[in-house]
Amino acid sequence: MKKWLWEDERYPSFPYQAQKLIDAIDNTAKKIGQLSALITVLDKGKENNIVIDTLIEEIISTNAIEGELLNYESVRSSVRKRLDKNFTLGEDSSTHHTDALTALLMDSSLNHEELTLERLHKWHAALFAGGYSSLMGAINVGVFRNYDDMEVVSGAHTKEKVHYRALPAQKIEKDIENLLDYINNSTENIYIKSAKAHLWFVSIHPFDDGNGRIARVIADYILSKGLNFEYKYFSISSAIQLDKKAYYETLEQSQNLLYNREYDFTKWIGWHIKILSDSVDLGLKKVDIVVQRARFWNRVDQEQLNTRQIKVLNKLLEYSKDEFEGGLSTRKYMSMTKVSKPTAFRDMQALVILGYIKQIERTAGRNVKYELAI
Asked: With contact defined as beta carbons under 8 Å apart, do 282 and 31 qualify?
């Protein structure tokens, strides 16, 4: 009995019901247009900060999806070296690995030339600098696997569940050629194209490790090229990381013919477009915070404030009002500024009088909490 999608005679086509995707595509396109319009009103410094934050999030999230946790400061340092003119070598905490991951993402985002086999192998080599995977140990880098026993599994050794078995090794090269031709020459809607290429590559599973990460890089590459972005202001991997369970479930239900008996990929494409929409929402939220911060500081007389007050206000501005859990308390102020309770209280009362923070309605038996007055 045929079980995996590549065993179906229709593979590598990925049929779908277009009419079920029209509204989702239109809504996502509108959101991307809205995000692009908001970016244009920011000054270059603020725009660059959003680019840096987005690239950091993408690098950290795409690795976290696969269980590899990267050091935030190392990634941040690698990205800033490439994009922040104020970066100095004295603050460099990057590693060869995070430098390579940054170079990979910059190439996939900014280099809109055709995707070739050589470039694909270079992307893989950048993922595993030194030929070592933190999850698998030594692996073959920049070459396709030469064995058939490639499975996606979960569970303990004696109770493993096989979620997917990849196609035989002798079929990889031809299948990759077909995929690259599709990526480089298809005029299909870019949101659908990105989703299909993502699924297609991860279904081939051509490398020893890193197939999911390369698949997400390909999806990003198609979007960046198709939308003709210099920089992309949203991170798909960040949105996937927030909904990782659904990511793996939707993949399995698309690749396994026991679930996907109709050989229909509308569900996968629809989910992919939804996760793209979610990532744009995160980008819109980030820009909104930047705009709110700029408007706030435009009305603040910083000469009336001490360095502690400025630090706390900046910290509050990093979050939307509903995200700064419980509001600002005297205890939180003390923790952030390392001052005594009386000093914290005086600083906060001064901010209230100046109209920069306001009291949240007091709940009986609880301490007074404050939020930004914006």
From this structure: no
210 & 162 share domain: yes
The CA distance from 179 to 78, in Å, is 31
What is the H or E stretch that residue 211 is in? helix 211-226
pLDDT of residue 231: 82
Q: Is 84 exposed, middle or buried (0-12, 13-18, 19+ CB in 10 A)?
A: middle
Token pair 């509001």 is found at 327
The verdict on residue 295 lying in a domain is no
Tens-digit pLDDT profile for residues 221-230? 999 999 988 7
**Domains of the chain: total:** 2
Residue among 329, 326, 108 nearest 223 (CA): 108
Q: Specify whether the CB–CB gap between 76 and 60 falls below 8 A.
A: no
Its sign, for the CA torsion 181, 185, 191, 193, is negative
For the record, the structure tokens of 332 come out as 């939180």
Query: At 322, which CATH number?
Result: 1.10.10.10
Asked whether residue 338 is assigned to any structural domain, the reply reads yes
Residue 133 β-bridge partners: 137
Which band of pLDDT confidence, cut at 50, 70 and 90, is reported for residue 232? confident
In this structure, the number of other CB atoms found within 10 A of the CB of residue 20 comes to 13
**How far is 32 from 186, CA to CA, in rounded Å?**
22
Summarize pLDDT for 263-309 with one digit per residue, the tens. 999 999 999 999 999 999 999 998 888 888 888 988 999 999 999 99
How buried is 95 (Cβ within 10 angstroms: 0-12 exposed, 13-18 middle, 19+ buried)?
middle
What whole-number distance in Å separates Cα of residue 58 and Cα of residue 72?
12
pLDDT in tens, 79-93: 999 999 989 988 899
Tell me how far apart the alpha carbons of residues 214 and 209 are, in angstroms, rounded to a whole number.
10
Interval 12-28: pLDDT, tens = 999 999 999 999 999 99
Residue 178 has pLDDT above 70, yes or no: yes
If asked whether residues 284 and 361 sit together in one domain, one would say no
